[in-house]
Amino acid sequence: MKQALVLFQNQKAGILKENADGYSFVYDKDYLTDEKAKAVSLTLPLQVEPYQSHTLFPFFDGLIPEGWLLDIAERNWKIDNRDRMSLLLACCKDCIGAVSIIAINDKEDE
Prior knowledge:
Largest sheet: 5 strands, antiparallel
Number of domains: 1
Structural class: alpha+beta
Shape: globular
């Protein structure tokens, strides 16, 4: 299972996971109680319940670079362009905008 910490303006906003059933995103409970909390995307409004999808959520997929920059990432990290979660983890730690994606190392992956 691949996991990522999702930061919004350098604050922990939630956790994104990929597993055999697809993807899930859940907002952090502490983040939800913050009166200044904002949704990471208009398509992912603040809520306690996890979001579920069979494909990577369009908002997160949109963070992955395109064109020549994607070609460089695929070549340097040897990541298949269909492995969207791996590309997100490799390329989106320091994105343009308010959201950052930080890989969470999982014991199962080792």
